[in-house]
Amino acid sequence: MPTGLNRRTFLRTTAVAGGTAAFSGVLWQRAFAAGPAQPGASPYGPLLAPDGNGLQLPQGFTSRVIARSMRRVEGTRYTWHPAPDGGACFPDGDGWIYVSNSEVPIVGGVSAVRFDASGRIVSAYRILNGTSLNCAGGATPWGTWLSCEEHDLGLVHETDPKGERSARAHPAMGRFKHEAAACDPDRRVVYLTEDQPDGCFYRFRPSTWGDLSSGTLEVLVGSGTGAVTWARVPNPEIWLTPTRDQVPGAMRFNGGEGCYYTGGVCYFTTKGDNRVWAYDAAAERLDIAYDDDLVTTGEPPLAGVDNITGARSGDLYVAEDGDNMEINVITPDGVVAPFLRVVGHDESEITGPAFSPDGTRLYFSSQRGKSGFVAGTDGYTYEVTGPFRR
């Protein structure tokens, strides 16, 4: 660190000097020519007073609670799991399914809620059992959910949202403290984050696209933003040396969290330094989409970055772990602003943001709810409906 400069001042200086060049990715090639996202007015307007569910939303949006941990899902006989975490939506006939991980040890797994065309809950059920600390994950182009275990020997489990086919573990994708996954159908790879203070960013190249049972695990290599490369991890399945320490020069990321791919760019978050990264897959270039230390005016609106998803409009939605319990929107124009806030859940975190297939409903959870109890037995899972940009 240069003498006389704190981290925020130093990062601002290097960014202005050209440390964050424009992406070639379609969504963000204009926005970050001027640097990472900055605070501004939300495209949805200001947040209103809390509604009956304790959510502050913009004008025109409404909410409902669709599930509570350790209680039966309304209209079903199924008890919702504790500590709801990563999630995704899948089309199902005229309706859709929302899947949700359970981040508890030993009995984690995944549950699902099925909705009809009107949004009415018609069933809830289990799609994965016998796994531990299921944190985030990702949807595949062939309609399955990748549920990731967050412990040192954690695996990626491929599940069927309909619960009709048995889940499968994929050791070839590596045994490490998995967080999230994002599929890149253009390069036919799956990107993976690792929740360690010195974790890495990986990609898995399956031998056959659509079959994750075999393939090559690679780790990102580089010295910072700019051009990066990939190197094969020698022993991803059975190791004495952790995967993150097997390749010299592997880049380190401080607490990898959410991961989302769209338009040629894979966005992923790191909670330790409060960043949203952007990997331009075509150019093999890494840049910073958001960093609270690179906010040049006012207070950073987004802290405790965690899960991430996107909308058809190109907007990113980033959930907070703690801070003031918001989901912030980052627009393709490089503006970051609060989209919603959960009131009264001060010891919780927001998890599992995902849009319904038609883009009109956003699902997410407050993992520990109002009590903040670490076991997550007070978790809430919400639906927000309204005029989302598309």
From TrEMBL:
It holds the Pfam family PhoX. Signal peptide: none annotated. NCBIfam families: TAT_signal_seq. This is DUF839 domain-containing protein. It comes from Actinomadura rubrobrunea.
